[in-house]
């Protein structure tokens, strides 16, 4: 039984060592020192209670455990990146309900096509679009945005 779970950054270090072929190249790619990379691999090996890499003057090679760890690390890091991307998109994607009012002619010819495109691009956004032939009260008519074309400013 493990005392703790491997950290994502340690798995990332292992993957980078495999991709680059050495501790020093991995350190350069990660913007870290070779000592940092060595320490993270030691921690990962201690956490998993196994040797992951055979080190020699000619470079590094994965052990059988290292190969399995590497394959799982690739999957885990891919899923982790998907998680981060998905969660951060929530903050940037418009969602919820917006109520838009507009005059008939301008609304039909210009605003309705724009709203169709808006809804296509942001499916989480719900748009209630209402055409009026009168001046409206935003609060009383429960409208968030009223678009009007007029010669006079009220």
From TrEMBL:
Gene3D superfamilies: Periplasmic binding protein-like II, Winged helix-like DNA-binding domain superfamily/Winged helix DNA-binding domain. SUPFAM superfamilies: Periplasmic binding protein-like II, Winged helix' DNA-binding domain. Keywords: DNA-binding, Transcription, Transcription regulation. The keyword Transcription regulation applies. The keyword Transcription regulation applies. PROSITE patterns: HTH_LYSR (PS50931). GO terms for biological process: DNA-templated transcription. Residues 6-63 form the HTH lysR-type domain. GO terms for molecular function: DNA-binding transcription factor activity; sequence-specific DNA binding. InterPro entries: LysR-type_TF_proteobact-type, LysR_HTH_N, LysR_subst-bd, WH-like_DNA-bd_sf, WH_DNA-bd_sf. Belongs to the LysR transcriptional regulatory family. This is DNA-binding transcriptional activator TtdR. It comes from Shewanella xiamenensis. The gene is ttdR.
